[in-house]
């Protein structure tokens, strides 16, 4: 009996199931190859002393135990947490303001949406390199501007102090990513019917009351999505520190992924880096679960 | 019917398979050579080889800060180049992991093997076998601006020979004007300071590592503290430009070229750069001084080796032996302001014409080079303890804290 003949013998429900599976199969294969299998390989590597080149050895949980006494790992956790807490509010507040500004479909509004979104497209590595030169003390236009306006008397070395280094990195990242949050929030804003605002105005509601009682509650899901994406992005940040600060000054801006990178590709301790990656994954899963729970829709 | 098809197929395969090896032996091969961007003479060398040989070399230049990572990843992926020019201090890490071909027999056949730079030969060895030979030699020394020396009332024929004299000269030159500074060093470049700052310590009979390179002696050796105090004093008194604190190496040679710096540490690459690109700059060179006299240098540069699994070991060795030959060492190395890696050849007509190169070459004989499997983690890593110690001690002024932290971190890394 050929395959076709056996297919024709199935019931309509069974054929639907097979069709469904076939539709999902490409994505399942993709996730399997690019996520599940690498994840399992990383998990496997984390239990080994696995140098980039040379022989590897099984060492059980030793990598995980070593993490607890790794001073830089703990410093990186602290730094990444502080960075995430500092960078998320500006992205959101600015993103929301921009979304509100470009919300209505007046002629020419597309130009502004494009302008605000453009930095998102250029890639974090390119953006970081751009800002390195903008902030440079000898040829950067930011120092040139500040000197000409009389704001400072000599060129500023932004990367020389931990606070200013963190501040300019945050500035560059907010510039680069706010457009993406804006688009997400924009979609949420546009989903709110105008009639709700009109009837609220009839009842005498002012701007902030409309914001608090209509806009934000109805945008709960959108905000949840944008927040989770933004937080995950910040926790996984690496490019901007690698390129702009080299982890300095005094190793004060080494994020977790930066430390994973160093351990895996500079010190060639890939097993140790793998263990750190697994711990980071667990942290992110917990963080995302908590956010989902807090921002769940009660309707 | 099927059997005949199979037989014809098998015949064709064996014919093709039989012909191919014959033709491969007659075909010239193209070998890949990887080098870091700070090794300057390689392009001229490769061009010189390609013009006169059938076997060709394809050169790939990699940014120095990424070389180890890229090389390590390529080796791990089985895509290592056929020949690699490696910073000599990384060689123990590569050879101990079995990543380089054992060249001992080939090296022993070289008649001039005892003339080859000792620092390179030592670093190229692992457990008594040779895995690499010298390719590019760099010894560190001080370069100074003779015009500024004269202006400041110092004698350009008698450069500083002790730390006190360095300090006095730096003060005199800085006093010349607001934008003029007596000294420069790249404050965020780990490797630059291993090259130019460690010799201050060595010249004073001190060291950061024990003699067998197994322990850190940062706290035990008082010279280390005093070296930090020397640079700290210069920084504190404003004898070094502020921008030096964030210079991660891009300005390492350019700062001196501006003509506003009195003294700086450098290598022969600096002499070549300034002679070729800044002909109006008047400079001379001297040895890096010890505290009360004496000299030392960092024996650096590149070794060349053949990564394991290379298909072209014989052909690669042909290139290496050619590079080490007297003609190439004199014409292409010395003729281009590069130090020959055969010590006896540093006495040549080109260097007779420029005594600064003679001094540069002579630093190879007082060259120290730390032998460590974790050299990168300790001394070259931008987030490593050597650079952190320098920055905290000199720019933040906390010498005690810097030494404590560095000793602890050095020990952690060396214990694995």
SSE blueprint:
The complex is a heterodimer of chains A (299) and B (416).
Chain A: H1 3-8, H2 12-45, E1 48-49, E2 57-58, H3 62-68, H4 71-101, H5 109-121, H6 124-134, H7 141-148, H8 162-190, H9 194-202, H10 207-218, H11 220-235, H12 239-245, H13 256-266, H14 270-294
Helix pairs in contact in A: 2-14, 4-8, 4-11, 5-8, 6-8, 6-12, 8-11, 8-12, 11-14, 13-14
Chain B: H1 2-26, E1 30-36, H2 42-52, E2 56-62, H3 64-76, E3 83-87, H4 91-96, H5 104-108, H6 118-123, E4 125-126, E5 129-130, E6 133-139, E7 141-145, H7 146-151, H8 163-174, E8 181-184, H9 190-196, H10 198-203, H11 222-236, H12 254-257, E9 261-266, H13 268-277, E10 283-286, E11 288-289, E12 295-305, H14 313-324, H15 326-333, H16 349-353, H17 355-362, E13 367-368, H18 375-380, H19 385-394, H20 399-415
Parallel strand pairs in B: 1-2, 1-3, 8-9, 12-13
Antiparallel strand pairs in B: 3-12, 4-5, 6-12, 7-9, 7-10, 11-12
Helix pairs in contact in B: 19-20
Question: Can you characterise this structure?
Answer:
- The complex is a heterodimer of chains A (299) and B (416).
- With 299 residues, chain A is mostly helical.
- Helix content of chain A is 73%, strand content 1%.
- Chain A is built from 14 helices and two strands; from the N terminus they run ααββαααααααααααα.
- A two-stranded antiparallel sheet of chain A has the order 1-2.
- In chain A, α5 packs across α8 and α6 packs parallel to α12.
- Chain A is flat and about 80 Å long.
- The model of chain A has no long low-confidence stretch (mean pLDDT 92).
- Chain B has two domains: 179 residues, 3-Layer(aba) Sandwich (D-Maltodextrin-Binding Protein, domain 2); 204 residues, D-Maltodextrin-Binding Protein, domain 2.
- Chain B has 20 helices and 13 strands.
- The N and C termini of chain B lie far apart (67 Å).
- The mean pLDDT of chain B is 91.
- The chains are: A mainly alpha (299), B alpha/beta (416).
- The interface between A and B is medium-sized, with 21 and 29 residues.
């Amino acid at each position: 009996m050929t395959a076709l003949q056996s297919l024709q013998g199935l019931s309509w429900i069974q054929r639907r199931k097979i069709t469904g599976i076939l539709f999902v199969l490409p994505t399942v294969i993709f996730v399997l190859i690019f996520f599940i299998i690498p994840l399992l390989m990383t998990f496997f590597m984390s239990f080994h002393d696995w140098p980039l080149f040379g022989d590897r050895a099984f060492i059980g949980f030793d990598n995980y135990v070593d993490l607890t006494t790794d001073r830089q790992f703990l410093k990186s956790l602290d730094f990444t947490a502080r960075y995430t807490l500092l960078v998320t509010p500006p992205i959101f507040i600015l993103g929301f303001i921009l979304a509100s500004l470009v919300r209505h479909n007046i002629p020419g509004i597309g130009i502004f949406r494009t302008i605000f979104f453009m930095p998102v497209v250029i890639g974090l590595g390119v953006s970081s390199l751009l800002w390195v030169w903008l902030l440079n003390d000898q040829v950067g236009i930011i120092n040139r501007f500040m000197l000409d306006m009389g704001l400072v008397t000599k060129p500023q070395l932004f990367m020389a102090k931990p606070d200013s280094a963190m501040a300019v990195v945050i500035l560059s990242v907010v510039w680069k990513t706010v457009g993406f949050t804006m688009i997400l929030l924009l979609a949420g804003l546009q989903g709110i019917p105008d009639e709700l605002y009109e009837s609220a105005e009839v009842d005498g509601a002012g701007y902030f009351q409309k914001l608090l009682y209509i806009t934000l509650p109805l945008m709960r899901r959108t905000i949840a999505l944008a927040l989770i994406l933004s937080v995950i992005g910040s926790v996984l940040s690496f490019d901007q520190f690698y390129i702009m600060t080299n982890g300095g000054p005094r190793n004060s801006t080494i994020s977790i992924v930066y430390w994973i990178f160093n351990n895996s590709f500079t010190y060639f301790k890939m097993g140790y880096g793998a263990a750190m990656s697994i711990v980071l994954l667990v942290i992110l899963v917990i963080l995302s679960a908590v956010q989902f729970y807090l921002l769940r829709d009660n309707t | 019917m099927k059997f005949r098809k199979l037989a014809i197929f098998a015949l064709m395969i064996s014919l093709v398979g039989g012909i191919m090896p014959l033709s491969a032996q007659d075909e010239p091969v193209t070998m890949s050579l990887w080098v870091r961007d700070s090794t300057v003479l390689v392009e001229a060398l490769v061009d010189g080889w390609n013009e006169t040989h059938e076997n060709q070399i394809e050169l790939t230049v990699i940014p120095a800060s990424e070389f180890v990572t890229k090389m390590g990843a390529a080796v791990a992926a089985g895509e290592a180049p056929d020949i690699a020019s490696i910073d000599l201090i990384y060689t123990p890490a590569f050879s101990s992991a079995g990543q380089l071909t054992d060249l001992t027999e080939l090296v022993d056949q070289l008649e001039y093997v005892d003339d080859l730079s000792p620092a390179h030969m030592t670093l190229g060895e692992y457990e008594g076998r040779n895995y690499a030979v010298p390719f590019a030699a760099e010894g560190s020394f001080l370069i100074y601006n003779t015009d500024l020396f004269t202006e400041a009332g110092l004698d350009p024929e008698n450069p500083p020979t002790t730390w006190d004299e360095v300090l006095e000269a730096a003060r005199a030159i800085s006093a010349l004007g607001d934008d003029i500074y007596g000294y420069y060093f790249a404050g965020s470049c780990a490797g630059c300071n291993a090259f130019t700052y460690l010799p201050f310590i060595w010249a004073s009979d001190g060291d950061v590592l024990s003699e067998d390179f197994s322990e850190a002696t940062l706290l035990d050796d008082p010279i280390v503290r005093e070296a930090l105090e020397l640079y700290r004093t210069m920084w504190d008194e404003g004898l070094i430009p502020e921008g030096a604190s964030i210079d991660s190496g891009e300005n390492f040679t350019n700062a001196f070229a501006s003509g506003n710096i009195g003294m700086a540490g450098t290598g022969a690459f600096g002499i070549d750069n300034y002679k070729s690109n800044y002909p109006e700059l008047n400079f001379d060179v001297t040895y890096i001084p010890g505290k009360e006299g004496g000299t030392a240098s960092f024996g650096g540069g590149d070794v060349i080796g053949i990564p394991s699994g290379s298909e072209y070991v014989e052909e690669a060795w042909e290139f290496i032996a050619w590079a080490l030959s007297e003609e190439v060492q004199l014409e292409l190395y010395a003729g281009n302001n590069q130090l020959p890696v055969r010590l006896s050849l540093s006495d040549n007509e080109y260097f007779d014409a420029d005594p600064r190169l003679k001094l540069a070459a002579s630093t190879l004989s007082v060259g120290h080079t730390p032998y460590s499997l974790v050299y990168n983690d300790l001394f070259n890593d931008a987030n490593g303890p050597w650079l952190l110690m320098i920055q905290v001690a000199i720019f933040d002024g906390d010498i005690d804290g810097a030494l404590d932290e560095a000793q602890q971190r050095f020990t952690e890394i060396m214990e694995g």
